[in-house]
Design a protein that fits this description.
The structure is a homodimer of 329-residue chains. With 329 residues, chain A is α/β, with parallel strands linked by helices. Chain A is built from 13 helices and 12 strands. Helices cover 46% and strands 16% of the residues of chain A. Chains A and B meet through α4, α5, β2, α6 and α12 of A and α4, α5, β2, α6 and α12 of B. Chain B binds a DNA duplex (16 and 16 nucleotides) through α2 and α4.
Chain lengths: 329, 329
DNA sequence: TTGTACGCGTTATCAT
DNA sequence: ATGATAACGCGTACAA
């Protein structure tokens, strides 16, 4: 079986506490006992039981990262950043994938609370504002979102500004009938607002039938939505999309409908995932530094934990328009 | 603070054990006590402490999935399959990303053992055969690999057969000078062997300078390796790559060197990730059903756990050659 | 049907 | 410098 402090203590002929001290490098211990105990420790292959430690200390050295879609390349890169900071501070990360399901998100939060995680990062949460506020009140949470959550510790991706930038880029290139592929999720409307603002500022009309919604972010859903959009509103000459995956689905639909890019249809995305520069034509998009985002949101969580959950902070993130050929740029 | 069984017991005026019984639906309890306790449970928002439970039961309801590269789209999809089966059986999954570093892999295994995970899935392990055997002996492990590990519970991706298939596809199309971009990792040589066998069977010579190694699987590394390969051995007319990411890096290098695909250079990959059909030209590759792979390797882990780590089993996976334009197909 | 007492492996308190 | 003992929150054996 697994060796415990007691096993080591018996074998070494000392008390449990002494062994504990050696393990944790704490208190004053004579060099010879230390060496002796260390030897036995090594011989028996002792490994501290994190469960017991957690029970006593009330800490689990574990945090959780909740994301909606692990297959969206955006999130793995965020995870990388989160993980690097977490590791540097002795934390392990539970990665929880909700498949865009708010119920699953709440279920995870419940389970994680039971596992006594020290903090939770909500990344692209699909909860509504009320749920989000409640969760942020009850748990130690830091949030990464392009929405504007009422909560207290947030890293904010400027979704409104991003869609404004991509859409304005299209209006500036002379497009007058611009569609939008958006994500239909609770309280998720800032990107739509950016799209609408760009149209308004350009003096262009809004038309509800130029907007299509996808229930989840993936290429397939966007492909379907875009096909319907382009079929029912063929007058459209450009589409600004919720993100890169949505844009890539739109590109596929366009290609299938015989529309050449970018001449017959201009398309923009959001995120600048690796795929964006690999597809043909390369995708005009908004660059977001995902790894750094992950680092920052984890650093924020560390502060939240240190502040005992009382921290109020809101950080904004820089974005940059990357013009490539998909928009005729 | 957090409410415990004791808090509930005091408030409800019953014993701790009675509350415990209500929580776990066990033993005979009078309907009225049950209701009463349930009400208090609810009122106080009781949530079992998984740490304490784990300490008593010796189980943590947690497993771990160790992968080398979360940014390789292959792995998130495996994760999805693992997670679905894990959830269905009441397990949470720790996702551990090693960045291709064997030392980090061992470190994770150590930490996970400390957290008393009930089992570990090694997916694309970078450990050498000796280390792998040792880990499999000491822990409850199921393995997903294209290598041929000596261990006992393995789902095997036929890497040799896959590279044989892609490379033979190239020889059949008349290519006589075929390069290979391989992964340099411990005991990782079965894909190279597939490549070599295809050349031999076609009566073609092997040439060490037609093979380049990447230290890690990512587009950038492959781009660099391919550029060197195509520059120093411009006589090559085709490249069969370790996997799709390597192939995509190779495509980029080829494009930059002014070689048109597939006429000036044919390229094949492995995995059939989403990107493979999106790049231009679409990539000829080997299809692997990643979600199913994840399900199977988690199911295997369940068996390993049930067998107390004694299970011996080795499953093979089906693959399929997908011919697209990158190979001239 | 319900309760008491103990143990899980560790850390912390207070002695010695 | 070292050790005995009591927590931590829960489950299990055994009583009542």
């Amino acid at each position: 079986m697994v060796t415990t402090l007691k096993d080591v203590a018996e074998k070494a002929g000392v008390s449990v506490k002494t062994v504990s001290r050696v393990v944790n490098n704490q208190g004053e211990i004579s060099a010879e006992t230390r060496e002796h105990v260390a030897a036995v420790l090594d011989e028996l292959g002792y490994r501290p039981n994190a469960l017991a430690r957690g029970l006593v200390s009330g800490k689990s050295a574990t945090v959780a990262l909740i994301i909606p879609q692990i297959t969206d390349p955006f999130f793995p890169e965020v995870m990388l950043g989160v993980d690097s900071v977490a590791r540097a501070h002795g934390y392990n990360v539970f990665l929880c994938n909700t498949e865009d399901d708010p119920a699953r998100e709440l279920e995870y939060i419940d389970i994680l609370a039971g596992k006594r995680v020290d903090g939770i990062i909500l990344c692209g949460s699909r909860l509504n504002a009320v749920q989000l506020a409640e969760v942020a009140k009850q748990h130690r949470v830091s949030i990464l979102s392009s929405r504007n959550p009422p909560s207290s510790a947030v890293i904010r991706i400027p979704g409104e500004a991003g869609l404004f930038a991509t859409t304005r880029h299209l209006t500036e290139r002379g497009h007058a009938r611009i569609g939008h592929i958006g994500l239909r999720a609770p309280d998720e409307h800032d990107r739509l607002e950016g799209y609408e603002r760009a149209l308004k500022e350009a003096g262009l009309p809004l038309d509800a039938k130029w907007v299509r919604w996808i229930p989840r972010v993936n290429i397939e859903a966007a492909y379907t939505a875009a096909k319907s959009l382009l079929t029912e509103a063929p007058e459209i000459t450009a589409v600004s999309c919720y993100n890169d995956l949505a844009a890539i689905g739109t590109m596929r639909a366009a290609a299938e409908l015989g529309r050449r890019l970018p001449d017959d249809l201009a398309i923009t995305g959001f995120d600048d995932i690796a795929m964006a520069s690999l597809v043909s034509p390369p995708l005009t998009t908004i660059r977001v530094l995902r790894y750094q985002l992950g680092e920052r949101v984890m650093q924020l969580l560390l502060k939240v934990i240190a502040s005992d959950g009382k921290l109020e902070q809101r950080e904004q993130v820089d974005i940059e328009l990357i013009v490539r050929r998909s928009s005729g740029g």
